[in-house]
Structure formats: C-alpha cells, structure tokens
Amino acid sequence: MQPSFEALQLSPALITVVHDLGYTQPTPIQIEAIPALLAGRDVIGQSQTGSGKTAAFALPILQRIDVDRRELQALVLCPTRELTAQVGREMRKLGRGHHGLQVIELVGGQPSRPQRDALERGAQIAIGTPGRLLDHLERGVMKPDSIKMLVLDEADRMLDMGFGDDVGEIIRFLPHGRQTALFSATFPSAIEAMSKEVLPEALRITIETPDEDLANIRQLKLCFGDDDKLLALCWALQSQPHGSALVFCNQKATVREITEELSRGGISVDRFDGDLEQFDRDQVLARFRNHSVRVLIATDVAGRGLDVEGLDLVINYDLPEQAEVYLHRIGRTGRAGANGVAISMVQHESDWDIEAIEKFTGHEIEILDHSASKCLSLDDLLKQLAEGPKMETILISGGRKDKVRKGDILGALTGDAGGLSGKDIGKIEIQDKISYVAVSQHVISDAVSCLNAGRIKGKRFRATHVGR
Ligand code: AMP
Question: Which pLDDT tens digit goes with each residue over 303-332?
C-alpha cells in the first residue's frame, strides 16, 4: 500500500494544507525524502521535474524553521529565475498556514536594492540564483549564521550554467552543522564530485525509470516529409484538442517567425525566449498560466521551471540536440498524475535523432496519423485553431503585500460592485506586489475601467490590460 502523508511524520498543520491543495498521496520522492529530511539527514535525490521534488524539500523546511524568529534559516539555490519563482510559489502555497512566514526571492537581472531591503526586514527562507545570492553574502547584507538548511535544486543545471564556483563560494559562507539536500536529474562526474565533497554522508534516493516517469505522457511523432513545416505544426495542434500547448524550437529566430505566423492567423499565441526582459517574461508566463495565451512558442529557456496547470500538449517543432533535453521538455506535461501528449515533428519516421531519443528513453514513439488534417488548407486550419473562448489578462498594481486576496478581486469585478458575471472571470494569481486576473475578451475594457474606478481593500490600484 502507498504510504499517506500522515505516515511521513509531517505536522498536522502541514498535512491539512497538503490535503487542501488536493495532494491525495505523496509522490515517490516525497515518500523517501520527507522523513529523512525531517530526521535531519542530508539527502541526495535523483528525480525528474514534475516528480513533486519541490514539496519534498519545501515541506521539511517549513516544518523545521521557527517562524517566530525573523532570521534566515533555509536557503534554496536554483539555476534560473523562473525556477526560483516556481519554488517560491510552491513554498508560499505550502506555507500558507505559517503566520509570519517570509519567503524572499533573490535573483539576478533585477535591482538589488529591494532585495537588500527585504533581507534587512527579515525572512526565514531565501530562494535564489547563485550569482545574486553570493553578491548579497559578500556585501554582508545576507547573514548566513542562522541558516540550518541548504537546498541545491537542479544541481546539474546549475553546473551547466557555470554556477559551480559561485555555489562553492556560497557554501563556504554557511555554518558547518547545517543540513544539505541536493536534487539533480542527472549525475555526471561533476555532480558526483560535488556530492562527495558537500554531503558525503547523505542518503541517496533514486526514483525513476524513464518509462515510469513518462507513464502519463503519450509520445507521438508527426512525420511531415516534404510538406511545409508550419502547416505540419498546425496539423499537430489540431490533432490533439488542448487547453494549453507549449511548442519548443531550437532557435530564437524560429520562435519569432512561427509566433508571428500563428498570431496573424488569429491564434492565441505568444513567444518565450531569452531575448525577453524579465518583466515581459513574467507577464507572458502569467498569461500562459491563466490561459489568456493558449499556445506558447519557446526555446529551452522555458523548458525548466515552467509549471502550468493543465498544460496538455507539448510539441517539439525542432528536436533537441540532447535526448535528455527531450525528457525535460515533454515532462512539462503529464505533471502530477494528469495526462499529456507530446508530439515531435520529424521529417522521416526513422531520422537518426528521433531514434537516438527512442533509444535513450527505451520507448518507441508512435506515429501520429494526420491524414484527417491533410485535406484542410492552412487558412482553414488556422480558422479552426483560432476558435473557442478567448481570455485576456489584467495586471493590478497590488498584491499579497497590500493584503489583496483572490476573493477581493473577484468581488470587485462581479456583483453590485463590478457587474460582471462570474463566468467571465478566469484564473486569479496574487504575487507579492502585483496580481493578474484573466477575464473574457469581450468584457476586457469594462473590467479594466471597473477596477480602475473602484477600490480593493479600500485602496485604489491601477489596472492595465496586458497583451502582446
Ligand atoms: P515539481 O516536481 O516539484 O516541479 O512538482 C510538480 C507539480 O506537482 C507541482 O505543480 C506540485 O504542486 C504538484 N505536486 C507536488 N506534490 C504532489 C502530490 N503529492 N500530489 C499531487 N500533486 C503534487
């Protein structure tokens, strides 16, 4: 029998939160890692994204910190800003019963000042990218003495990105008796060496055979032969009715090109690549998460740290050069027990690169039958793909720090105050200083005016429509 959360020595308060979030059973990595971390052991975990590893370390951290003390007690190192934000979201979600909990995100590419202020105000948990964390430590703004837990998340990726030295430097700042957890999808020799040095006594947890991890994902290949590749992409999109689809390309130029083409065809689409400024990245992802953007065209920047509820289709417009990247890409769908489909576009069924992937995963990829779409013209396909209800996103200049809650925004838009119908309001996402709300396209201007004219929690906030 599968153990329950109750069997993992979690506090009753955390068990309640986990159940409220709809997590009925712990995932394999959680079953192994949570009791070990609660018992104070170092842990090395090999696990894919989507395995529930964030909660596997977040829950023990939440249980082991003392919220009454406003000093830094846990530090989580992540390779990217997106993963930092995602870990932050999960940590706050799981920590919502901890009154007085402060979780701060410290990432590069953003002004240092507000981060320094936040550190000075005090937080129990800091999550961030190595370069910026090291900077705060070296300047003496971040006080490491009270840190008792360190997590290295996606350690392989941190090393790939050249953060190895920074990670080493950060560790030198930390107290000796601290507990450490390292998570990595792969274990190349550099990670083995780091593990031996940093956590020689750790409990090792290996959870995965690729087959099992991919059990919820139907893998298909679309062989387009000499046909136009954009047309073939439309076949792929049409073949699987989807709520949200993520399309991977290897190059930024391709991302731009197909985003433009699909957008001209009336499809709800946007792009996500390394050229976007941080603020735009945040907005694009928020719009994708709340389904204002149904198709996101991305480079591998988005491959990690992107967690979208209900992402049911991943398409490889180009195959990645490494088979491992293939796993990371398709692992964006089929998360936490949901079903997903991954379609790889290949010219011929036995191209060597798709065969290399099949060998790596030990799994033969089925051929997608697209004969039904083949008789439609590109225009007709685009027309069909552009159908369906459309949502738009509003950015509100207030968030958690202003005590804004989902119900406040819903209340401001509906009922006597706003007059809109609840069915026109989509997902609401509250961040620290801002919030996003999705509304039906036909009520967007009414919704923006009503939010700008009214008050939330007695205060006026600015509401703006965020679009492409
Ligand atoms: P991760 O592997 O940490 O990126 O988590 C993947 C997704 O699974 C996240 O959206 C989590 O909120 C969700 N999740 C984590 N643990 C569980 C669980 N035990 N049951 C259901 N969903 C979970």
Answer: 555 777 778 899 999 998 777 788 888 888
Question: Which of 31, 49, 54, 62 gets mutated to test ligand 1 (max ligand atoms within 8 A of its CB)?
Answer: 54
Q: Is the dihedral of CA 53, 58, 59, 61 positive or negative?
A: positive
In which domain, by residue range, is 247 found?
211-385
52 in ligand 1 pocket by Cβ < 6 Å? yes
Q: Give how many domains the chain has, as a whole number.
A: 3
Q: Which of 174, 179, 190 is nearest to 39 (CA)?
A: 179
Which residue's CA lies nearest to atom 16 of ligand 1?
52
Query: Residues 6 or more apart from 182 whose CB is under 8 A from it?
Result: 43, 44, 45, 151, 152, 155, 191, 194, 195, 198, 199, 202
Query: Do residues 344 and 400 both lie within one domain?
Result: no
**Domain boundary residue among 385, 405, 421?**
385
Q: Kindly state if the Cβ of 27 falls inside 6 Å of ligand 1.
A: yes
- Whose CA is closest to 422, among 412, 435, 432? 412
Q: Are residues 458 and 408 in the same domain?
A: yes
Q: Identify the segments of the chain with pLDDT beneath 70.
A: 1-2, 48-50, 208-213, 302-305, 336-337
Same domain, 229 and 319: yes
C-alpha 47 to ligand 1 mean position (Å): 12
Q: What pLDDT, on a 0 to 100 scale, did the predictor assign at position 454?
A: 87
Ligand 1 atom with least separation from CA of 93: 12
| Ligand 1 pocket residue status of 335, Cβ below 6 Å | yes
Question: What integer pLDDT is reported at residue 302 of this predicted model?
Answer: 63
Give 21 Cα–ligand 1 centroid separation in angstroms. Answer: 10
396-427 pLDDT, tens digit per residue, is: 999 998 999 999 999 999 988 788 999 999 99
